[in-house]
Design a protein that fits this description.
By secondary structure, this protein is mostly beta strands. The chain is built from no helices and eight strands. The chain has a five-stranded antiparallel sheet with strand order 2-3-4-7-6, with no helix packed on it. The protein has a three-stranded antiparallel sheet with strand order 1-8-5, with no helix packed on it. Strand 2 and strand 3 form a beta hairpin. The protein is elongated and about 75 Å long. The two termini are 36 Å apart.
Length: 160
């Protein structure tokens, strides 16, 4: 479970009402969904594979539209299989912030981040083993779902 602790400077001795406002609350949700990507017989860096895969995660349609094999880059990103992902909310105020992916070795860790309205998720490859060929089973094991706010918590400071 992921939690965040936020500290605030001391408040004056005023017994008023205080509030905290959050833009959203993110929950880590366990997921057990999978699909297969066929990289063919001779996958190469730069190869792109069109996908049309839909998963339902916590009432949100998550659409995988494309996978691309990308090289290690100057920003330190490893050799990887990158997936273009679109999350279409089924209910207002919910959004997938991140997905955790896994696949058999030589695939290793995964990361995800937003680029406009598109979530780019990748699963890294062990650099000593190159790109595998054939069908690759991928699993989504966790989703971070943001319940969008604003959320406000207010309380009165007790008098002494």
């Amino acid at each position: 479970m992921w939690t965040s602790l936020v500290g605030f400077p001391p408040v004056e001795d005023d017994p008023g009402v205080y509030s905290i406002v959050a833009d959203g609350i993110v929950f880590s949700i366990p997921v057990d969904k999978g699909f297969v990507i066929d990289l063919g017989e001779k996958p190469a860096i730069g190869s792109t594979y069109p996908l049309d895969i839909d998963l339902q995660i916590e009432g949100i349609r998550v659409h995988f539209s494309e996978a691309t094999i990308l090289p290690e880059d100057e920003n330190g990103l490893p050799l990887r299989l990158e997936l273009a992902v679109y999350g279409i909310p089924q209910a207002p105020g919910r959004r997938i912030e991140e997905l955790t992916l896994s696949a058999p070795f030589p695939f290793t860790s995964s990361k995800a981040g937003w680029n406009g309205d598109q979530l780019k998720a990748y699963i890294a490859l062990d650099p000593g083993h190159g790109v595998p060929s054939g069908e690759i089973p991928l699993r989504v094991s966790e989703a971070f779902v943001n319940i969008l706010g604003p959320w406000q918590v207010s309380w009165a400071r007790p008098s002494e």
